[in-house]
Design brief:
heterodimer; A: 225 residues; mainly alpha; Four Helix Bundle (Hemerythrin (Met), subunit A); two-stranded antiparallel sheet; elongated; B: 132 residues; flat
């Protein structure tokens, strides 16, 4: 038997190394492990997006560090204890947490290929996210109205940079969410749409994780100080 | 690629972040458990911050512990990061991210605290300026 014959008989193991024979769903069992060829596109996309999210979290860590360092630098202006309204923060937290939950349900519906429930999940996620952004904007407007804008003190600059950056992320997420609703309506469950939905849900969950750090470090620790 | 092969159960040896494998519970149940844990931890954190029943100096560290626990809940139940062999890549990337976050935050706090401690008080600094 020539090498060419062997390659025809066993196209996935042309060098007869005895590897990569076991196949699941048309791909070698050990795909992406350095033997069975590249990992499926879905894995590569989600992993790449995971790396992006982690780098985004690293960027937030710099803002957190700046806030922690400048927390006491109020320049005679109002402190966090005087400014923060924990009830408002609790409602914001509830909105974001529930929207993270409905985003998970949206992904369950997408796995089941139910357009109606996926769209409904996206809609509820979006409305809760919108509520969060509205409450945050109201809080910002309130603070600026009291003369506690970002230019008042280093503490407030760091506060608006950190919380505002998270709010901007949520707003961008809402824009993405609306786009996904339109794309799902127009294109249905194509592989690319499913990839995007998967990346969106990762993004949304990651924003909620950042908010957990944020409400603890900024609001709760700021209110007890 | 067909839609069926796209659902990805079993394709390749790795799990994508956010992807649920193993199926000990139906996926809906996993999200529900996560929501209950997260709500409980959030409620506890807000209660701890506002109560007068607890020993005040211990509250900040308690809040940090609650926050880290809640981030863990989100990672496990919402992002489905597990310790299984199909999640090695995701966990390693996460570990590296956590290392960098720790270095940035702890390093900044440490250096700035030292700088504040070693800096000459402002009035003396102004005097030096006037002498030259």
């Amino acid at each position: 038997m020539t090498a060419a014959d062997a390659a025809v008989r066993s196209p996935h193991d042309p060098h007869k190394l005895g590897r990569a024979r076991e196949r699941i769903d048309g791909l070698p069992k050990d795909a992406g492990r350095g033997q069975g060829g590249p990992a499926p596109k879905r894995i590569i996309i989600a992993y790449g997006f995971w790396i992006f999210l982690l780098s985004d979290i690293v960027m937030f860590s710099a803002l957190f560090a700046a806030y922690a360092v400048l927390q006491g630098a109020t320049a005679g202006g109002p402190t966090g204890r005087q400014l923060f309204n924990l009830n408002n923060v609790a409602i914001e937290t509830g909105c974001l947490l529930l929207s993270s939950f409905t985003c998970g349900l949206m992904m369950v519906a997408a796995e089941a290929r139910s357009v109606l429930w996926t769209q409904l999940g996206l809609l509820i996620t979006g409305l809760l996210g919108l509520g969060f952004v509205a409450l945050e904007l109201h809080e910002f407007a309130d603070m600026i109205g009291q003369g506690a804008g970002p230019q008042r003190s280093a503490f407030l600059s760091a506060f608006f940079a950190l919380v505002g950056c998270h709010g901007a992320h949520v707003s961008c997420g809402l824009l993405w969410l609306g786009t996904m609703m339109a794309q799902l309506l127009a294109k249905g469950f194509r592989p690319t749409i499913l990839h995007r939905l998967m990346c969106f849900s990762l993004f949304w969950h990651a924003l909620d994780i950042i908010w957990v750090a944020l409400f603890t470090v900024v609001y709760l620790l700021g209110a007890i100080r | 690629m067909t839609v069926e092969s796209h659902t990805g159960r079993g394709d390749g040896g790795d799990a994508a972040p956010g992807e649920e494998r193993g199926r000990v519970l139906p996926s809906l149940g996993v999200y529900l458990i996560g929501l209950v844990f997260a709500l409980g931890l959030t409620a506890t954190a807000f209660w701890v911050a506002q109560t007068h029943l607890l020993w005040a100096p211990g509250i900040p560290i308690g809040l940090c512990v609650l926050a880290i626990a809640q981030m863990g809940v989100h990672l496990v139940f919402f992002l489905h990061i597990t310790t299984g062999p199909d999640n090695t890549n995701n966990v390693l990337a996460l570990a590296f991210g956590v290392l960098i976050v720790f270095l940035v935050v702890a390093g900044s706090l440490w250096i700035m605290a030292n700088l504040n401690h070693n800096m000459m008080p402002m009035d003396q600094l102004t005097n030096l300026h006037l002498q030259h």
